Amino acid sequence: MNLPSTQPIPLLLGIPDDGMAKVGLDPARGMISVVLTGNAPFFTQVSKEVSGRLPIVYFGPGINPKATRAPRGAPLVNGITEPDLCSVALDAIAAMVDETGAHCFNPPRAVQASRRDEVSRRLAGIDGVLAPRTIRVPAIAEPAELATAIADAGLAWPVLVRVAGGHGNSPLRKVDDAAGLSAALRTLPWGGRDLYVSEYVDYRGADGLFRKLRLVVVGKDVFLRHHIAAEGWHVHAASRTSREELVERELGEIANFERDLLPQLRDRVVAIGDVLGLDYFGIDAALLPDGRLLVFEANAAMNVLHDSNPHEPRWGQLIGRIRTALVNLLFTPKLWRAARTDTSH
């Protein structure tokens, strides 16, 4: 790949606030993998040519911020995606960017503002978008405290409860009333951790299936990563229906996305991007019968480049297009939001 810039650009990663890493087995390589949660995985999903031009600099607990200064005005790539897991690292990077005036891909202040409760509040004013009301509940000792927080916020039942920092198919529970909170919390790893509670919106289609679309924004480009049909309300890759006609319909929607669906969504996607202030992010949502876009989450934390079905080449082709767009954007700092909004020059 011919990179737009040959200059290395520092990739800033965060050590989680609790200092913990996720250890597992990489079945493709037969090796133990160590993952610092809260960081974008894309730097491991690009070619060695690309990753070699993204030298990693770590931030987080126990690291002296003065040892990680950046040249004034230098381009930087922020790889931290999860403010609930890497707040110390984000604070340090944000302070450095403020001090040096560096142009930063996915600016740390924008990532800090991408908490679920903040996004819900900030998207509320966009026409044609429904962002369910969401609250963040500090670590509780008893389920009754959660019931009180829900009542005080005036949230309508049923609600969805998840541990802060969780994504994808991480534990998420639908609770119909206050009496169900104790049972729900027994199945969540919530001890000592903050929780998010969101109002549940029924988005079941006329055919009885739930459909979730994932939009991926890369600069000014928008891609449809998937439009999964599933029988249950908690939709993710593993819950995709195996019915061949529905999978083919999904792949057809992806192939014709720019012609059919994108014109309906572009203005709303642009508005969401302007609110978030991110260069590279995803939107998980559903189209409601009245045409509104029900947004489940919008942030930089989605694992977009992972191919969960390598036996179907059309998925790989789509991921390849997204990867190419991302690499081109990474190495063209003048196209980053920070550069386009900088009025100091």
Order of helices and strands: EEEHEEHEHHEEHEEHEEEHHHEEHH
Rg computed from alpha carbons, rounded to a whole number of angstroms: 20 Å
- Counting DSSP H or I runs of 4 or more residues, the number of helices is 11
Provide the β-strand percentage band: 15-25%
Question: Can you describe this structure?
Answer:
The protein is α/β, with parallel strands linked by helices and 345 residues long. The chain has 3 domains: 9-104, no CATH class; 132-197, Dna Ligase, domain 1 (2-Layer Sandwich), CATH 3.30.1490; 208-331, D-amino Acid Aminotransferase, Chain A, domain 1. The chain is 29% helix and 23% strand. It contains 11 helices and 15 strands. The chain has helices at 48-51, 87-100, 108-112, 116-123, 143-153, 181-186, 244-255, 257-260, 262-276, 313-330, 337-340; strands at 11-14, 22-26, 31-35, 56-59, 75-78, 103-105, 129-130, 134-137, 159-163, 172-175, 195-199, 210-218, 221-230, 280-287, 293-299. The strands form 4 sheets. The chain has a 5-stranded mixed β-sheet with strand order 7-15-14-12-13. A hairpin with a 5-residue loop joins strand 14 and strand 15. It is globular. The mean pLDDT is 92.
